[in-house]
Amino acid sequence: MPKNKGKGGKNRRRGKNENEDEKRELVFKEDGQEYAQVTKMLGNGRCESLCFDGEKRLCHIRGKLRKKVWVNAGDIVLVGLREFQDEKADIILRYTPDEARHLKQYGELPEATKINEGVEEGEEMGDEDVDFTFEDVDDI
Hints:
mainly beta, 2 helices, CATH 2.40.50.140
């Protein structure tokens, strides 16, 4: 009979998800930080984001958030700007849709910002809706 040598079983690996319904304090940007909206997921913990200072930056999801907080296209995030690379930034925090609405009410985010909760995986932001028309084809 094998001995239990591990640090727990299947339920430990699954996790508890304790912070799901927990209300957290709203975090505002500081010096060297900027709000951004994720436009495209690139893989390997990277994404393309449009910062609200008008720059498009390549963002890296920091290790603390990597497997705990899932970042998707359309999410509002707080990024830490790099002093030595202006075209790159690090994602520090992901805002929930409710928190993003509060930031918009406080005037931190531009009024034109769309807070997309349901952007599908693989779909880019800003694409216009394309209507497909199908004609009936008679099979012979």
